[in-house]
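User: Please fill in residues for this 376-position structure.
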């Protein structure tokens, strides 16, 4: 078993603060709005934003794995592309960027995922990574006809699932496995991952059981940011548990225009004029309701507006100077980088590329990226 106490199998970038595109495979992204500006997640648009992010020098692109449809006035979670096959297509459409898939361990056998992941890894020449999640939405479990175990039991299952996955990648000969959840004979998965290593494993587990799983099995951790005030303390505690300076990424959403006034007007339109409050409340009930341990219920109640603008992730809002300073504050606190969703990725990413990235370079957080032919 590999652990977070060992060096990760692969790294994404040498930049001090790394950036990725979050959830473009979902119609509307993370934003719950009826505005005509909302993200239309067609395949052509997904391929286009992936190439744009690749050419801008962003480090990664991370999809959601969604199943059930939420109530609301517009298509939202569940109206999405399946993450593993989506990743295969995105890897074939790009050259440098790391592409993750997200997989729910209760719904897919590890042997099947091992073969899928190896295929993606070879398509991308070693640029594939896997986000492992245990599931938290009861309707999804009912859809699959799968028992929804107690929270900590789900992570016990995921730990055995992940141990099997890594053995399938690492062991050249068939083996037997007789564990608590799996009883398998003569299993194998060839060819090996590309280049003799293995895909990067990430986890967004933030409960005590989730963090224990991540420390033992993941190469990087994605953490929720409820407030930036105590971020440095949280990061210090996580890395103390891990026993090394493990890469830590935040999950957020970006609303940025060239001026503060334009940004506020854009935000007001998306959230207060066209916000899909019914869908936001459904997210709060389904994801942050009974049985979850990632955040206290009273905190979840306070962030309904953040649910609208970006699925409850941290809101990074302002003009390019504001955004660059927010990212610097995160970096100074010890954060490795951030995955950011946008209202409309094709409309919004050019501001990040043309205005924010140069400011991050001047702050010493990122090296200039020359584009095609440049090696990071």
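Assistant: Residues filled in for all 376 positions:
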């Amino acid at each position: 078993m590999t652990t977070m106490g060992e060096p990760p199998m692969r790294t994404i970038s040498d930049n001090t603060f790394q950036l990725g595109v979050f959830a473009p495979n979902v119609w509307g992204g993370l934003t719950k709005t009826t505005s005509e500006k909302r993200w239309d997640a067609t395949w052509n648009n997904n391929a286009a934003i992936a190439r744009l992010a690749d050419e801008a020098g962003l480090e990664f692109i991370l999809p959601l794995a969604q199943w059930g449809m939420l109530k609301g006035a517009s298509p939202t979670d569940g109206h999405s592309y399946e993450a593993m096959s989506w990743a295969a297509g995105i890897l074939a459409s790009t050259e440098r960027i790391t592409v993750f898939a997200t997989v729910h361990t209760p719904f897919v056998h590890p042997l099947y995922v091992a073969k899928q992941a190896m295929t993606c890894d070879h398509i991308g020449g070693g640029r594939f990574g896997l986000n492992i999640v245990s599931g938290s939405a009861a309707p999804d479990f009912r859809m699959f006809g799968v028992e929804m175990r107690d929270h900590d039991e789900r992570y016990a299952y995921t730990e055995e699932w992940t141990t099997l996955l890594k053995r399938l990648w690492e062991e050249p000969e068939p083996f037997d496995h007789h564990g608590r959840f799996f009883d398998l004979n003569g299993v194998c998965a060839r060819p090996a991952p590309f280049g003799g290593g293995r895909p990067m494993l990430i986890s967004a587990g933030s409960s005590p059981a989730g963090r224990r799983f991540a420390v033992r099995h993941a190469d990087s951790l994605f953490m929720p940011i409820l407030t930036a005030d105590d971020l440095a303390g949280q990061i210090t505690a996580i890395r103390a548990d891990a026993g090394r300076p493990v890469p830590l990424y935040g999950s957020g959403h970006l609303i940025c225009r060239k001026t503060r006034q334009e940004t506020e007007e854009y935000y007001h339109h998306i959230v207060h004029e066209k916000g899909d409050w019914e869908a936001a409340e459904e997210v709060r009930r389904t994801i942050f309701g009974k049985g979850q341990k990632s955040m206290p219920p009273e905190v979840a109640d306070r962030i309904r507006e953040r649910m609208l603008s970006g699925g409850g992730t941290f809101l990074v809002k302002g003009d390019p100077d504001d955004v660059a300073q927010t990212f610097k504050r995160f970096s100074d606190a010890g954060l490795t980088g951030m995955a950011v969703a946008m209202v409309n990725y094709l409309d919004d990413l050019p501001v990040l590329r043309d205005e924010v990235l140069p400011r991050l370079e001047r702050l010493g957080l990122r090296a200039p990226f020359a584009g095609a032919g440049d090696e990071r």
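For context: The domain at 18-363 is CATH 3.20.20.30 (TIM Barrel).
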